[in-house]
Amino acid sequence: MRRDSRLSGVLHLLLHMAQQSGPVTSGVLAKAMSTNPVVIRQVMAGLRNSGYVRSEKGHGGGWTLTCDLSEVTLRDVYTSLGCPSLLAIGNRTDETGCLVEQAVNVALDRAFRDAEALLLSRFGEVTLAALNADVCKRLAARGGSHDLETNHA
């Protein structure tokens, strides 16, 4: 089963944007993510609707952060993506006449709910500011500046 990597990708974009002094175009972000600018615009729409970013058209335009990184958590970003499924596993069938499968489903459903609640709770504890601080520490250790167009690795 293919994993949903949108949360990771959006966090990647937001943290790159946090390192920039001005707007960043969809084209530059797309190059950093090895994707198409249209994909970037689609992903950023949910963030714009949540008030985390804005975009400006024209020369000198692009995407900019509009939020305080210390007030936005991983859970907030996850929610802005429409709350995609957190787990890649599930029940074989949801509606079954088999008593054995019913018992299995009840046990698994309980475990899935508990796991999702724990994960969402942890997401709520991690701010974008904490992630950005880690990025800054890594940049300092590498001894370089952050140039999205030429240094993305």
UniProtKB/TrEMBL annotation:
It comes from Luteimonas colneyensis. This is Rrf2 family transcriptional regulator. It comes from the Bacteria.
